[in-house]
C-alpha cells in the first residue's frame, strides 16, 4: 500500500460522505459499511480500502495530538477475499518477456524474477545497493533484507551509473509508475494478464521447485509470515507427483540425503540454488 493509494481511497470516501453532509470525522460505522458495500468492487478491493480506512482512523484517534475521540472503524468487519490462484509467470512467459521487452521494463522483470523485488523496491533501488554477491533491499516498514544475486541480475546492474536504477526523463520514479509502465509494456508484448507482481511470484515458485525451504523463501521475499509466502507459490500436479516420488519405500527409513534446502539463518551466506533465470529445458522449448 502506497501513500498515493491511501490518499486516493480517503479522497473518494470524503467526497462520498460530503454528499451526505458528513466529513471523515463525523462518519459512523454504518456509513463506512455502506461505502465499502458499493456494487462493482471486488472483495479484494474492499479489503484494501478497509485497510486504508482502519489505518487512517487508528492514526486519527491515537497519540497526544489525536484528531478524533472515537474510532468509527473499530467495529468495521474486514472483507475476506477468496483465496485465488497464485500470480506466477511461467518459465516460458519469463523467457519470452526477457526476449521481447526493452529497458526499463526488462530491468524491472529481471529484478522481480531474479531478486524477488516489489515494484516499490525496484523504484527505490540504487546502484550502490548492489555488490557482485548480494543486494540490500529496503522493503515495507523500512525493513532491510539481503538477497544473494544470480549472475543475470548482476549483469543487468553492474554497469549502471550511481543512483537510481530506474529513472524517467532523468527523474526518479515511484512504485505506481513501475506497475503502470510494466503492465502497459507487457500487454503490448502479448501478455495482457501479467503484471510485475507475477515475476515476484515466479521468483518464489522457482526457488520452491528448486528445493528451497519455504521459510528461506519467506525471508528472501521480506515476509513476516510464511502464510503470506504461500500466496506466491504455485504448485502444479507434476510438482506434487515429484514430491511424492521422493518418498522412500515404506520399509525404509526417511533419511535427509538430497535435501539441499538452506537453513533460514544461512540465507545471504551462500550462493543461490540456480544462477539462471530460465532453466535449460525452458530455453530449449
Descriptive overview:
It is globular and about 65 Å long. The protein has 13 helices and four strands. The chain has 285 residues and is mainly alpha-helical. The model is unreliable at 259-265, 267-275 and 280-285 (pLDDT under 50). The protein has helices spanning 3-18, 29-36, 43-60, 91-100, 105-115, 119-124, 151-157, 175-188, 196-209, 214-221, 226-230, 237-245, 280-284, and strands spanning 134-138, 144-148, 167-168, 171-172. It has a two-stranded antiparallel ribbon. Strands 3-4 form a two-stranded antiparallel ribbon. It has two domains: 3-60; 91-284, Orthogonal Bundle (hpI Integrase, Chain A), CATH 1.10.443.10. A hairpin with a 5-residue loop joins strand 1 and strand 2 (144-148).
Amino acid at each position: 500500500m502506497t501513500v498515493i493509494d491511501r490518499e486516493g481511497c480517503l479522497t473518494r470516501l470524503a467526497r462520498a460522505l460530503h454528499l451526505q453532509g458528513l466529513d471523515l470525522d463525523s462518519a459512523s460505522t454504518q456509513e463506512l459499511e455502506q461505502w465499502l458495500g458499493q456494487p462493482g468492487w471486488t472483495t479484494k478491493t474492499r479489503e484494501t480500502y478497509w485497510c486504508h480506512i482502519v489505518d487512517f482512523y487508528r492514526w486519527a484517534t491515537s497519540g497526544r495530538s489525536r484528531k478524533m475521540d472515537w474510532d468509527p472503524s473499530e467495529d468495521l468487519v474486514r472483507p475476506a477475499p477468496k483465496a485465488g490462484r497464485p500470480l506466477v509467470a511461467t518459465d516460458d512467459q519469463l523467457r519470452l518477456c526477457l526476449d521481447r521487452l526493452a529497458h526499463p521494463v526488462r530491468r524491472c522483470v529481471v529484478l522481480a524474477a531474479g531478486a524477488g523485488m516489489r515494484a516499490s523496491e525496484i523504484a527505490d533501488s540504487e546502484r550502490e545497493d548492489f555488490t557482485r554477491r548480494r543486494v540490500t533491499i529496503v522493503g515495507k516498514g523500512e525493513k532491510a533484507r539481503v538477497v544473494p544475486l544470480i549472475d543475470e541480475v548482476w549483469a543487468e546492474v553492474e554497469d549502471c551509473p550511481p543512483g537510481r536504477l530506474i529513472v524517467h526523463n532523468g527523474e526518479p520514479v515511484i512504485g505506481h509508475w513501475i506497475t503502470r509502465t510494466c503492465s502497459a509494456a507487457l500487454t503490448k508484448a502479448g501478455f495482457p494478464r501479467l503484471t510485475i507482481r507475477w515475476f515476484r511470484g515466479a521468483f518464489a515458485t522457482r526457488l520452491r521447485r528448486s528445493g528451497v525451504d519455504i521459510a528461506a523463501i519467506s525471508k528472501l521475499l521480506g515476509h513476516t509470515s510464511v502464510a503470506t509466502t504461500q500466496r506466491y507459490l504455485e504448485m502444479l500436479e507434476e510438482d506434487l507427483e515429484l514430491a511424492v516420488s521422493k518418498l522412500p519405500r515404506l520399509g525404509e527409513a526417511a533419511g535427509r540425503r538430497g535435501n539441499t534446502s538452506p537453513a533460514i539463518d544461512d540465507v545471504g551466506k551462500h550462493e543461490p540454488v540456480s544462477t539462471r533465470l530460465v532453466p535449460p529445458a525452458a530455453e530449449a522449448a
